Amino acid sequence: MLAYSLRRLLVAIPTILLLIVACFFLMHFAPGGPFTSERPLPPAVLANIEARYGLDQPLWKQLWDYLYNIVVHFDFGPSFKFKDRDVNDIIAQGFPISLTYGSLSFLAATTVGVSLGIAAAIKHNSWIDYFAVGLGIAAQALPNFIMGPILILTFTLWLGLLPGGGWNGGQWQYLIMPVIALATSYMGSIARITRSSMLEVLNSNFIRTARAKGLPTRTVIWRHALKPTLLPVVSYLGPVFVYVLTGSVFVDIYFSTGGLGQAYVGSALSRDYAVLLGVTILYGALTVVVNLLTDLAYAWFDPKIRY
Amino acid sequence: MSLFSVKDLRVQFNTADGVVEAVKGISFDINPGECLGIVGESGSGKSQTFMAAMGLLPPAGQALGSATLNGQEILNLPINKLNKIRGDDVGMIFQDPLTALTPHLRIGQQMREVLQVHEGLQGSAARARCLEWLDRVRIPEAKRRLDQYPHELSGGMRQRVMIAMSMLCNPKLLIADEPTTALDVTVQADILDLMVRLQKDEGTAIALITHDMGVVARMCDRIQVMRLGQFVEAGDTREIFRAPQHEYTRTLLDAMPRIDAGDAPKALDKIEDPLLKVDDVKVHFPIHVSGGLFGRKVPLKAVDGVSFDIRKGETLGVVGESGCGKSTLARAVLQLIEPSGGNVSWLGHPIVGLKRAELNKYRKDLQIVFQDPLASLDPRMTISASIAEPLKTYRPDLTDRERKEMVAQMMERVGLKANMINRYPHELSGGQNQRVGIARAMINKPKLIICDEAVSALDVSIQAQIVELLRELQQEFGLSMIFISHDLSVVRAVSNRIMVLYLGRIVELGDGEEICSGPIHPYTKSLISAVPIPDPDVERSRQRLKLPGELPSPMDPKAALRFLPSRLAAGQTDYVPQLSEVKPDHFVAEHDSLDTIMNGA
Q1: Which residue in chain B has the smallest CA separation from A301?
Q2: Residue B319: domain span
Q3: How confident is the model at residue A228 (pLDDT cuts 50, 70, 90)?
Q4: Is some CB atom of chain B closer than 8 A to the CB atom of A303?
């Protein structure tokens, strides 16, 4: 398993390099640049600024310098939009915020979703089953950019219970709405996947064997049915984990949380090459690590899988 | 007093089309220590009867009537009371040992929980009891098995584990639902032997649910023949085999081919130019094994140097146990997978390594019928569209009307009704779908058809009809056939010659009747002796040749030389046993004497 993990991480290096190169060229080929604005700068000034950020160099040289700085100094360069801030700063400030509400959302979506799905499958065709199925559909119809305004309207404007936005060091009152907004739709999907997976497992031959052995229902469900049920859920959770960890632009905008999502989308719109690339690499690296963790988790759920 | 008694049992299912009655009021008794056979084809309700009694029906099913165990009513008991009976007084084993054990729990864990629940036995006492039972079902290296996962064991071993697990609490009744249907013949024979011994030693009564008259002949004291949810005949096994009263029982018995009797085709004379010549074909798959940072690949020799030819109008039967490479060989012959070595020539033209377009010219004459009729038809195409498809490829000159005409003719020829043309595969039965598969293969009048386990998934009576159809078509169109099956009795009934494969190599090839009545190679002998014969007197007096060891894995390099222990002892692990012609047209692979093999392993 160790050899397998090492091998996977080694393969990740060229993957991420490829990702950087592809993003780099895509961005530079897109029309416009970080210093294009509605009122064009005088050519002399533009040339000056571009020289300062190295944008006057040939593309391959820019790429080389960029990669060199990352590999040697772990420096992702300065932001083109925010003077005196570099990419490392921006990520260091936004990522912990995204990480906090993201992992809480993940935890909430997973625990509630899985429990609901299991309950629905065990009590197939009962009110809890219909509730779970209904919630699954509703949650998918209510993505976070709809949930956000609804939550603010309800809890801040009508009930006046929760602050309508801000971060405040991650105090719990400020966390509740972002977490709910982000978690709901994933929760619905997880409940749906868990339910159908559990229904399938409960129909399988080895569950019949477990019942024929006279095991109590409780043991049949928890000991025999749970692990195989969660296998497809885990493969869905991997990508979800990356999404929620890197934050959501909508959550950041509605609740002014200041997470990475906002910085990411902002940088794409303003061609802030350095920030965009920096966050993309973070996404890429996270994806690689989470995919590896998912694959290792498989081995725990299914002994047939050995690395 | 009878041990288990069922009175007027009905099983109903609520479906979208209304209530369907799967079991229509049946009554029977099982006495202590006896083996009762419940015989019937799929859909007869034989499994549902026992599922209902044990409270294992799916949620849509409900049971009415009465089932008593030792005089106590058990039908529709609340689950907590039922759980005191299941696994304790009544053990159950099921058809598919590959899926019947929980994949993520170790064998030991799964066995111990039975003892924990029923007897409160834990720790080393429980472990000792599990070990004792694994030994009693003769699992080699029982201690190691306790810590293994189900997928690490072969199918036969898993079924032994199932038996050991269901016997842990010394049940009075063992319900065995098609316990050997998914197993190879030699493994089946082992499992049946084991069950006979348990019945004798422990006095356990057995309810054996099966469709296989050969298994019944070997095992059962009494039989109940079931059809469409009702019993049509009941009585002593010998009586029923000697003089079946009901028409359906007679059909079942007649449909069952026998390896020791009945007509079998003779080998055709050797000819100069065979239709198909297969020369030293090899198919090796690279298998990834762990080791080092990047692992390494070792070849799995699925087919390892097979040569034979097919004469015009003959049927060559190919038999062997799972993993022997029968299906891989078929696919390699048709170039559906590219052989790693060797040559295949069709009417003298080599067809290995041809480009797709060139190969397609030959494909018209080389067709295949697969095992699973439903899975091998496109679910979104009507059956007439499936049958017509090869015509569109090879006869683009035909008009729509001509094509329809040909499809209709072919459908009639294979026994499909004309009003079925617009049906979809899921609307037809397994036998009907297989007729579609045959019609599709036959529509271009090929010269060779490969039947890859084409009748294995079908009920015996349907199987007999399909075999009959294939024979007629062969006569009519003079086509040749390669008939691949694990069922030696069926193969004998259709084949002029039989080829026995073992781990990708030929061990014996010759006239079908000669192979079945006078096998020469020890492996063929053990295979033939394991085939159950649907006649209780013959079956119970037969001596079985049981070779030492479990069915070997193709990944085990030593397994290839299982019949040449002398070469193994001499360290020649790469030695390839040579075929020699012991009689005209009868080839046998080199092997040591039977005594050496029996003592060697």
Answers
A1: B104
A2: 276-365+446-600
A3: very high
A4: yes
For tokens 């090879």, the residue is B394
- pLDDT score of A2: 78
For residue B163, is pLDDT > 70?
yes
My answer on whether B291 and B240 are in the same domain is no
Tell me, yes or no, if A8 comes closer than 8 A to chain B by beta carbon. Answer: no
pLDDT in tens, B6-56: 999 999 998 888 888 999 999 999 999 999 999 998 888 999 999 999 999
A-chain CB neighbours of B85 within 8 Å are 214
User: Closest chain A residue to B171 measured between Cα atoms?
Assistant: A213
Interface of A with B in 49-108 (CB under 8 A): none
Chain B, nearest residue to A299 by Cα = B104
* Domain assignment of residue B393, yes or no: no
Q: What is the mean pLDDT of chain B?
A: 89
Q: Give me the pLDDT at residue B596, please.
A: 84
ipTM of the complex: 0.83
- DSSP symbols for B364-387: TTEEEE-S-TTTTS-TTS-HHHHH
Facing A206 at nearest CB: one of B99, B117, B294: B99
Q: How confident is the model at residue B293 (pLDDT cuts 50, 70, 90)?
A: low
**Of the CATH numbers 1.10.3720.10, 3.40.50.2300, 3.40.50.11270, 2.40.30.30, which one belongs to the domain with range A87-301?**
1.10.3720.10
Quick check: B150 pLDDT over 60?
Answer: yes
Alpha-carbon distance of B437 to B432, in angstroms, equals 9
Q: Hey, which residues 204-233 in chain A have their CB within 8 Å of chain B? A: 204-206, 208-217, 219, 223-224, 227-228
* Subunit contact A215:B96, Cβ cutoff 8 A: no
B80/B83 Cα distance (integer angstroms):
5
CA torsion angle for A157, A158, A159, A161 (degrees, to 10)?
-10
- Across A86-95, A275-284, B192-201, which has the greatest mean pLDDT? B192-201
Q: Please compute the mean of the pLDDT values over residues A40-62 and round it to a whole number.
A: 81
Distance CA B338, CA B196 (A): 46
User: What pLDDT, on a 0 to 100 scale, did the predictor assign at position A220?
Assistant: 95
A213–B86: do the CB atoms touch at under 8 Å?
yes
B180 and B286 in a single domain? The answer is no
User: CA nearest A122 in B: which residue?
Assistant: B59
A210 in Cβ contact with B114 (< 8 Å): no
* Closest to A279 measured CA to CA, from A84, A30, A27: A27
Q: How many pairs of residues across A and B have Cβ atoms under 8 Å apart?
A: 87
Q: Which residue has the tokens 């690339």?
A: A277
Instruction: Say what the pLDDT of residue B403 is.
Output: 92
pLDDT for the residue numbered A267: 83
Q: Which residues of B touch A306 (CB under 8 A)?
A: 290
- Across the interface, whether the CB atoms of A211 and B294 are under 8 A apart is answered no
Q: Which of B255, B290, B323 is the C-terminal boundary of a domain?
A: B255
CATH code of B29's domain: 3.40.50.300
Any domain includes B326 = yes
Strands (E), B205-323: 205-210, 222-227, 230-236, 276-289, 296-310, 315-319
Q: Cα distance from A306 to chain B (closest Cα, Å)?
A: 9
pLDDT bin (cut points 50, 70, 90) of residue B294 is: low
Q: Is residue B231 located within the same domain as residue B344?
A: no
Residue B94 to residue A304, Cβ atoms within 8 A? no
Q: Which residue among A7, A219, A303 places its CB closest to the CB of B103? A: A303
Say if CB B169 and CB B119 are below 8 A apart.
yes
Q: How far apart are CA A247 and CA A253, in angstroms?
A: 11
